[in-house]
Amino acid sequence: MDGTLKENDLSGVVAADKAHVWHHLVSHKGFETTDPKIIVEGKGLRVWDQNGKEHLDAVSGAVWTVNVGYGRTRIADAIRDQLVQLNYFAGAMGSIPGARFAERLIEKMPGLSRVYYCNSGSEANEKAFKMVRQIAHKRYGGKKHKILYRDRDYHGTTIGCLSAGGQQERNAQYGPFAPGFVEVPHCLEYRAADQGWGDLSGEAYGQRAADAIEEVILREGPDTVGALCLEPVTAGGGVITPPQGYWERVQEICRKYDILLHIDEVVCGVGRTGNWFGYQNYGVKPDMVTMAKGVASGYAAIACLVTTDEVFDLFKTDADDPMDYFRDISTFGGCTAGPAAALENMAIIEEEGLLENTTAMGERLQENLRALAEKHAVIGDVRGAGLFCGAELVADRASKEPVSEALVKAVTGDCMAQGVIIGATNRSVPGYNNTLCFAPPLIASADDIDEITGAVDAALTRVFG
């Protein structure tokens, strides 16, 4: 796009949008006086709106999805060719791209062996929850059915996923929720004092945060708990990286009580943290892994639930039993565009060395943010893994009092006006929607990173002085 597009060239589109489109996560009252932003085109890290304004996208499609960037012709061509050959067949049967991508995916996930296709992260997590419940009935008389989830983690939009959601504001007005979901404490070391754990840090805090999970298991009864569902890095709850020793202890606890470890990689999966999957940064061996956003970088809808053979084998023990299989279907899990796109997406990541780039540019991003913290006292903490970073804003470093969500919104709005799109926790955790979020595509260059943090620098100066 050459920047010559005028607003009136798309006036009919804007009018149709305002009249008929129900946008996600937006109050439409404001559209009575202003136009919605319509993204018209993307190339690399850049997108253009209906007015021809260029933006650097530092959040990969606003929801951490477009890992390999915009305008990838080879992915679009692969989708087109596959759709002409075979666009869809129900998942009770196989397809060529489905088999090939499953094989390639499992190569990246030692210890796991089976891929169940569906079409969104929420749906993938629902499938995992259903497997846990069915296993409870098959092996434990229905008793070992409870699913533990973590405060500030997020697993999706359905009622089942919200039942396992640790973000109270996202859950508000949608109850009552499904029974059998039990919360465990978050693992944000920066907020240890808020948990009543004093000034613990490092491995001591990691041990304490993990032991808190065991305390919940013992309270509920280990014979009632079937699974623990966690994000490897808490995403929308504040980009929370796990403390030292946390994951090792968590896995030990799960093995001790025969609890399935379900890791939600919807955000972190397929390169975001510098490894193929976030859990691989911490030496964890999960029983179930769910993924979606970056699997095909948003070029087609695809999500996967991946399990070990041990989990898979629990559903094929008796061929004569009509109830002895996973009795579930995902209609659009049978679409072939998703795995076709995912194959090309994975090839691009490998051929262009994007895991290595993610690690290098992630380090630069955190270095730049820490430099900003030396300049702006409002930055209380910087954390992240790969190209997934957060900067928590506080009114006072000593007390760690969070700034208001309105001020965080002012910072993101200022960056948007500069032509840089960044994210922030919003309407999620009461009182703690105070973290700026950064997740640019994995193709980001050093200049891109510097442009992102330069915009943040200017915005913080204008908003906070």
UniProtKB/TrEMBL annotation:
Keywords of the record: Aminotransferase, Pyridoxal phosphate, Pyruvate, Transferase
Pfam family name, one: Aminotran_3
Transmembrane parts of this sequence: none
Family matches, as SUPFAM superfamilies: PLP-dependent transferases (SSF53383)
Cofactor(s) recorded in Swiss-Prot or TrEMBL: pyridoxal 5'-phosphate
Annotated CDD domains: OAT_like (cd00610)
GO molecular function: pyridoxal phosphate binding; transaminase activity
InterPro entries in alphabetical order: Aminotrans_3, Aminotrans_3_PPA_site, PyrdxlP-dep_Trfase, PyrdxlP-dep_Trfase_major, PyrdxlP-dep_Trfase_small
Gene3D superfamilies: Aspartate Aminotransferase, domain 1, Type I PLP-dependent aspartate aminotransferase-like (Major domain)
Highest taxon of source: Bacteria
Family: Belongs to the class-III pyridoxal-phosphate-dependent aminotransferase family.
UniProt xrefs under PANTHER family: AMINOTRANSFERASE (PTHR43094), AMINOTRANSFERASE CLASS-III (PTHR43094:SF1)
Protein name according to UniProt: Taurine-pyruvate aminotransferase
